[in-house]
Amino acid sequence: MIKTINWTSWKKWVAALIMLAITFMSWHYTANHTLSFSHTRDTIPSSAITNSQQEEKEIALTFNVSWGDDVIIDILNVLQEEKVQATFFINGEWALRQDDLAQLIVDEQHEVGLLGHALDQYHDQPDKTIIEDLEKGEMVINNLDYEPLRFVRPPEHEYHQHVNDVVQSEGFQMIFWRVFAHVQADSEVDTVVDQLHSDVDPGDILLFFAQDNLTQTPDILKQFIRDKKREGYDFLTVTELLSPADVKWTPLN
Questions:
Q1: What predicted TM-score, i.e. pTM, was given to this entire model?
Q2: Which of 88, 156, 159, 172 shows the greatest Cβ crowding within 10 Å of its Cβ?
Q3: Which ranges does the record mark as transmembrane (predicted)?
């Protein structure tokens, strides 16, 4: 039996496939395209920041701190030894439990941001709950004699536009990162450092997790800092990196 092709039906299928391809390409571009805008001391960008567009060899080290005490001390010792100032995003409840370490971060003149007060994810919370959490975290940080609080990262480490809008409505700026230090409990120091070297560009914001199961982090940090210094890089706080500067933001899925 010879089957015949219904031309009208075939054209409908082709049109549907073309529309599906266009929809996918549009989504892919939107999800991965980086938008740029100007940032100065007098203007706050409308979205989360991941890096500066300046071409100078400058990068910012940032640390998320929500549990542990040993590794954070070793990290602070490395930064002090290398004369590097960084930006620490600290969880409010952690700061209440480890008030001496939180105060040490401030006393050593590092920049401080908020990693939420509780560790509940912001994106599935009502606006009122997010605002209350921000207010509690701000109070904890102010009690460390550090103010004003300017920067926030959500506890879930993810970008959600609505969360970003709520955070900015309270007068804070959402700061993300372009390079994440993939440190695992069994990571080799040289392997992680080599990966960081291949990933990092001038103007980048880097993220390290400062927690006790990642015991290699201080050694990775020390080797990375020394290598980049030999390459002529300077290490700045987030404020120093972005003020004044052109910055980029990327919706993080």
A1: 0.80
A2: 88
A3: 12-29
